Amino acid sequence: MEPLRRIAIVGVGLIGGSLALALRRAGLVAEVVGIGRTQQNLDVALARGIVDRTGTDPALVAGCELVLLATPGAVLAPTAAAIAPHLDAGAIVTDAGSVKASVVRDCTAALGGRARFVGAHPIAGTENSGAAAADADLFRAERCVLTPVAGTDARALARVRALWEAVGMDVVEMAPEAHDELLALTSHVPHLLAFALTGAALAYRRTGTDAPDPFVFAGPSFRDATRVAASSPEMWRDILLGNATALRTALGAVRERVDELDDAVAAGDGDRIVALVGAASAAKRGAREAVARPEGTAVAPAEAPDTATVAPAAGPLRGSISVPGDKSIAHRALLFAALAEGTTVIRGVGHGEDNRSTMQVLRALGVGVVREGGEVRVTGRGFAGLRAPEGVLDCGNSGTTMRLLTGILAAAPFDATLDGDASLRKRPMRRVVEPLARMGALVDTTDGRPPVTVRGRPLRPAEILLNVASAQVKTALVLAGLQTSGRTVVEEPAASRDHTERLLPAFGATIERPRANVVAVTGPQVLHACTVDVPGDPSAAAFWLVAASIVPGSRVVIRGASVNPTRNGAVDVLRAMGARISERPVRSLGDEPVADLEVEATSLRATVVAGDAMLRAIDEFPVLAVAAAAAEGTTRFADGAELRVKESDRIAAMAIGLRALGIAVEESEDGMIVHGGRLGGGTVESHADHRIAMAFVVAALVAGSPITIRGADAIAVSDPGFLLTLAALRRGGG
Hints:
Blueprint: E1 4-10, H1 14-25, E2 29-35, H2 39-47, E3 53-55, E4 66-69, H3 76-83, E5 92-95, H4 101-111, E6 116-118, E7 120-123, E8 143-146, H5 154-166, E9 170-173, H6 176-205, H7 220-226, H8 233-242, H9 244-267, H10 270-285, E10 297-299, E11 308-310, E12 318-322, H11 327-339, E13 340-347, H12 353-364, E14 368-372, E15 375-381, E16 393-394, H13 399-409, E17 415-419, H14 430-437, E18 442-446, E19 449-455, E20 463-465, H15 471-481, E21 486-491, H16 499-503, E22 518-523, E23 527-528, E24 531-533, H17 538-550, E25 555-562, H18 569-576, E26 580-586, E27 594-600, E28 608-609, H19 611-616, H20 621-630, E29 634-637, H21 650-660, E30 664-668, E31 671-675, E32 682-685, H22 690-700, E33 707-710, H23 722-733
Parallel strand pairs: 1-2, 1-4, 2-3, 4-5, 5-6, 8-9, 12-25, 13-23, 13-24, 16-17, 20-21, 28-29, 32-33
Antiparallel strand pairs: 7-8, 10-11, 11-33, 13-15, 14-15, 17-19, 18-19, 21-22, 25-27, 26-27, 29-31, 30-31
Helix pairs in contact: 3-4, 6-9, 9-10, 11-12, 11-13, 13-15, 14-15, 17-20, 17-22, 20-21, 20-22
């Protein structure tokens, strides 16, 4: 997308503010003018850097190339009329309204030919509102609907499409009337039902009986079904009234389904209930089949809705992108904040499932965790303030969550059980349990694997020599040591990533580094709230570094990525293979080094990845194996036995997959030898491992024919917007 010199946002709330933040982060706008009704909200937008100047005068749109109307639906057309006299000739006006037929008609008429109007609906949001809720990642991996009509200017339509694609949205076009019918069923009726269900619970609470409060005892289904009931009443008044006809039609269809179930219940017809619920269940499980995948991917058949087929690149990859916040740093920031006194603000926490697992577990331990726009606010309880969970703590697929929490809970005054998904249940936990036992911890496992039951008790300090370098184990021991009277020393055989050592001092902790590979803490210590900026994940960046290196003609900039020396092994390996990667340091908050990475395509050559290089590139191994497959010569990977016990056996998974694509591979216990050659098409398995799935997406870009990846849904564990980012880079080069 060509950068914009000046834009105006009329209504700097969740949608308008988020768009401004996303465009700023991408370097696609020089100046943003904020126009609104209340100076208080505009002041928030100014303070957060969402806009450059603000005011309530519609004349502020003068000189703007593009104006986004992000006001309540009822005032979109009056707002268009108010700004019309002040617009430059040829300016583009678009909107973000949830109703389209009346808005497109009325806004086009209100502008009177003074500007080019394009109807748009970015389908994204939360129950929060205002500039304080704005989030640069709000649109990532979501869909935007454009609603052109017969008179829509084609160049303006293309410009608005590029705008929403640039912030990570999958853009589709449909008639305004079709949009309204669809959204009535998929958005407006669900909101209406949430309002009704919440109202019914409120009425139940008001009966004056001794019955339990339904809001206190609500389970996950009630919470999920009523989450959006906290939305703006004024906004939803306008939406429901503005789309009344389509809404009532959709609501009638829902009533028919409810009546069917009601009749079956009343008649005691169990077979009918099973049939109706079964049909709904099957439809929900296969819902991904109906979702249009980003450019370059195909939808799987109904029997395999989690399969994606990725086509080879038709041209270079070009663009400037950001990657999700570093998971390792975000996990630590969330956990340290939970143990601190006060409220910590964490910016840049990704939307992947692993970080979400940490937040959910912390809530179950009584910690206040609220995501507000691009920030997560954690109200800590201190080490002694965690409460005993009511049930099992579900860590999902996140080994970091489980291992670090084991160290935290080892000294807690209660018992707790940690569990996870099928993949996490296969991962070894003795490596953290055994050194904790030397501090007096009582931890039960299931033959060395999850579930893990931690029987909290007072611990004693210890000097611990680890057999394997592990940042997770090291951090678990440090967190236990912070709760223990005396000095705890942890020594590793080699240097593991040092995010804990860099971040803990920001929370007021004293952590010693007396010599290489050794850390020590003297407890007990008290942590204090602070502000944390999470840089981009270097592991996520590695996929794009490889993709841009091997797709001819590519040039990609990755903004704001961590370049921590203990994490840049992939960059060093790629440079050893001849990759053209440059760094431009950027200012960061805290001790983590951050830079923009620029990579250009070139021919790669074979190398050896072993020792310290393997340790520092352990998480990037799958995509480095793809780089080796595309390189000239034979690459050897060694000293990576740890790869056998990641989310999958990554050595075996990559060897099997690369062989299926025609690459000669020889496995060893701690690595493999990859003979570079011509990648062919075929079908591979992700083994429920996000990094395996993403690695084969990259491989598909230079394959002779499409690659089908079974279990591609695993990508959401770390980067739900991965395929949309790829689609944007494809378009940038096309």
